[in-house]
Amino acid sequence: MNNFKEEAIVLKKVSVSIMSILLIFSLLGSVSFAQAPSQLPRTETLYIAGMQWGPPTTFNPMAPSPAWPNNRGQDPLIYETLFAYNLLTNKLDPLIGESYSWKVYQLTVKLRKGAKWQDGTPLTAKDVVYTFELGKKFSLAHSPVWDFITDIKAKDDLTVVMTLNKDRPHKKRLETYLGQIIIVPQHIWSKYDSSQKTLQEYTNTEPVGSGPYKLAAFSPEQIVLQRDDNYWGIPYYGKPAPKYIVHPIFKSNDAGNLALERGEVDLSQQFCPEIWKMWEDKKLPVGTWYKKEPYHIPASIPSLYINLHKKPLNNPLVRRALAYAINYEKIAETAMSKYSPPAKSSLIIPVGVPEQKYFNQEDVDKYGWKYDPKKAVEILEKQLKAKKGSDGIYVLPDGTRLGPFTAECPYGWTDWMTSLEVVAESARAVGIDVRTQYPDAPVWTDHRNTGNFDLLMNTPAGGYTPAHPWLRFYEVMEGRGVAPIGQVAYWNFGRYSNKKVSSLLDSAAKIEDEKKLATIYRELDRIFMQDIPLIPLEYRPGWFYEYNETYWTGFPNEDNPVAPPMWAWGGIRKYYVIKPKK
Fold first, then answer.
1. 3-class DSSP string for 190-248
2. 64 or 214, which is more confident
3. Phi and psi at residue 405, in whole multiples of 5°?
C-alpha cells in the first residue's frame, strides 16, 4: 500500500514538472516537449554552468542540499537576501534591505518600500523575523546566527531590530548573515514548519520568492528560470536583461567547459584549465575577471578535511606526516592551472584579499609544514615508530596500518579530482595508503555533513565576507553546537573540539582594535597548525568567473567593475548590465 502511495507522489511531481516546462514554452508557440529547450530565443536566453551538479531534487532553501538557484550563497534570483556582499568595496549592497545601522548592541535594518512576494503578497519585516526565527526553532544552515543575536523584532512593516549577544558581540559576523540568509514568505512556509523533518522535506517545486526570476521548468538535464516582469525591484534596480536563464546540468567540468568554448554557455562558474588559451590561441570571445594571471580573485581555501575520530587519523602526528607528504606545488601547477600559488599551512589567505594583513610567515615556518617527503618519513619512523610493510605501507607499533584511507570529492569537479590524485600519489610515495573516490555531489554532501568519511575535499567558509578570516576559523574549529558524527552538521565537518579556540573566537568577536585582533588570529592559526584538523590544498576564487561573448556582451571584469565577483557569484548586477549581441 505504501509503495502505491509513494508512486503516486512521484507521478504527481513528474506531472507538475512536465506541465511547468510545457507552460513556459507555450509562450513561444506550439512545440513538442523534446524540442522545447532549443526553442528559447537565443537573444533572450542566458545559459550558465557550474552552479548545479546532479539532478535537482528539491528547491527548498532550508534543505541541506537545495538546487540552484536556491542553494545558499548563489545568486538571489528567486529568493533574495537582505543585502549582497561586494568583495571590491568590502561592503553590503542593498537588495530587500535598503539600509542598516548600529546603535551600541542594536542593529536596525530598513526594508525597501514596495517589496513583495511573487504571488503579490507584501514582503514585510514579519517575514524577515520569521525566517531568522526558523533558525532558532530548528537546526538549519543559518542557525548559527543565534550565537550572535538574542532577539529579533519587527518594529513596523519596514523595520527589523536585532539585539546583539553581549557575550559574543561580533558585528561583522551578523552583518555577514544579512547577505547570506535567504528570506522566505511566512504565509507559505508556516504550513510546513511543524517539525524540522516536515520543513526540510518540503520539496518546494513551485517556489514563491521575492526575486526577479521564477522557476519555470526543471528536469535531470537542466533548470529553467523566467524573468518576473512584475518584480517589485524594477523601480530600484531596473529589469534584468535575459528573459530566460537556463542552467544545463553537466556531468563534468570538461563537458561544461566545452560548451563554454562553443558559445553554448555564456557564463560559467567552474574550473577550466588554461582558459587563457581560448583567447590567446583560439581567438575566442572568452574572458575572465583579470586578463592575466591569476585570472581570478582568490577568496577561498579548498582543503582536505580529516576524520579526527577515526584511528589512526585521530593522531596529530599521522596528520602531520600526511601534510608533509603532499606536493602542493604540483597541485598549483596541474590541478589549479596556475590560478593559485602553492598553498601554505595557514587558514589565512596570504594574497589578494583583506585578510592577508593577518598572515604570518614566521609562524608558518615554525609551526606549519610544506612539501617535504623526507620529513614525512622522519615523523613516521622516528616519532611514530612505524615500520614499513612488505607492500610499502607503514604500520604503527600497535598493528594499525596507515590506510587505506579514502579521499573523496564530487565526480566531475576535475580540479578537485586532480588535487586528490596528487594527494593520493604523494601519500603512497611516503608509505601512507590513500585512495580516491568520486561519488555524485549529493552523496559527497551527505558524507561531508554526517562525518561519514576518511578524507574529504571541501571549502571552509567558501566565498568571501566581511567576517573573514574569523569565519574560516569558526567553520573549521568551532565545536560548540556541532551535531555529532552521524547527524547533519553545517560546519566543522571533522568535529574538531578545543575550548581554547572557542574562547579565542569569542574574544575576536568583541575586538575591533586591529593589533589585538591580529594577535588573536595569530594564536588561532598556531593552534590550527599544531592540531591540523584539515590540510589546505589550494587557493581558489570565491567563484570562478568565465564568460563567452558570442551571444551576450558587457560582462563585468577588471575594466568594467560594475558587478564584481562576490558572494553572489559575480553580483546580481551582472544580469542587468549585459546586453544581447547584435
1. CCCCCCHHHHHHCCCCCCCCCCCEEEEEECCCEEEEEECCCCCCHHHHCCCCCCEEEEE
2. 214
3. -110, 135
3-state secondary structure of 375: helix
Retrieve residue 407's grid coordinates: 579521499
Amino acid at residue number 530: Q
pLDDT value at position 563? 67
The set of residues, in sequence order, having a beta carbon less than 8 Å from that of 554 and lying 6+ positions away, is 560, 577, 578, 579
Burial profile 217-233: b = 16 or more Cβ within 10 angstroms, e = fewer: bbbeebbbbbbbeebbb
- The pTM assigned to this predicted structure is 0.72
The residue with cell 556582451 is 553
Give me the CATH topology for the region 52-201. Answer: Dipeptide-binding Protein; domain 1 (3.90.76)
| Amino acid identity at 539 | Y
Phi/psi class of residue 489: alpha, beta or left (left: φ > 0; alpha: ψ in -120 to 50)? Answer: beta
Tell me if residue 576 falls in helix, strand or coil: helix
pLDDT, tens digit (0-9, with 9 covering 90-100), for 238-285: 999 999 999 999 988 899 999 999 999 999 988 898 999 999 999 999
SS3 546: strand
CA dihedral (435, 439, 443, 444) positive or negative = positive
Class of domain 298-541: alpha beta
What does the pLDDT look like over 471-513, one tens digit per residue?
999 999 999 989 999 999 989 999 999 999 999 998 998 887 8
Q: In 485-508, which positions are buried (b, 16+ CB within 10 angstroms) versus exposed (e)?
A: beebbbbbbbbbebeebeebbbbb
Domain 213-294+543-580 fold: D-Maltodextrin-Binding Protein; domain 2 (3.40.190)
Q: Is residue 564 scored above 80 in pLDDT?
A: no
245 Rama class: left (phi>0) / alpha (psi -120 to 50) / beta: beta
